[in-house]
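Worked Example 4.2. Consider the chain below.
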Amino acid sequence: MMKIGLVSYECRNNDIEFNLSQIKKAFKESNVDLLCFGEAFLQGFGTITSDYNRDIKMAVEQDSKYMDIIKKLTIETNTSVMMGYIEKDKEDIYSSYILIDNGKVLHNYRRISKNWKEYEKTNDHYKEGNNSDPFNYKGYEMNITLCGDMWIYPKRFKTNGILIWPVYVNFDLDDMEANEYAKQAQLAANHTLLINSLSEDPVSKGGAFEFKDGVIYQKIELSKEGILVVEI
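Applying the procedure from the previous section yields the following structure tokens:
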């Protein structure tokens, strides 16, 4: 059995130090095997400005000092982490979701849909990935999709295992809305974990959900920090 914690905590734009403190808090307050944070949690979803010279300085590499701090946490706590971040790879920028276990990067997914940026304004250094294949983590099949990926390319994320779906949603994920997400998720997987961070700018009321067979199985309260624990 594995315990997964879906972390719906506040994150702030352009405030890596605060967001990193939130990550540390989740490690301290939880007792799970794997923590999953929201889309672009490390820097905040609204950090992309379309000004390349500014954005490339805000993006972080997989071996950055911030990632080193998180890698160390996974070793000290024996807890793995999945987290959204704006990734720098040489001169290029991606919206990515990383899996770190025992101080090592096991998987790094790059969003395949282009709606994470104002693509009519950005240059060719703002890029998308092309790999949406499932992967194995500690004997469990998993796949990752980021926000609009699942609405635009649902069939590319088919898995017989767990689908991890970090999103940024700027409206209330009430039961009616969440059920639409649950139905969409079922196009790819029968078991999906959705994570939405809290933020004031842009506004997001957060929330975390476990979907099974296209319906809500469990959830946590909106507009309040919390960790939804899922056992698989």
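Residues 3-231 form a domain with the Nitrilase/N-carbamoyl-D-aminoacid amidohydrolase fold (CATH 3.60.110.10). The chain has one domain: 3-231. Compare this with Example 4.1 before moving on.
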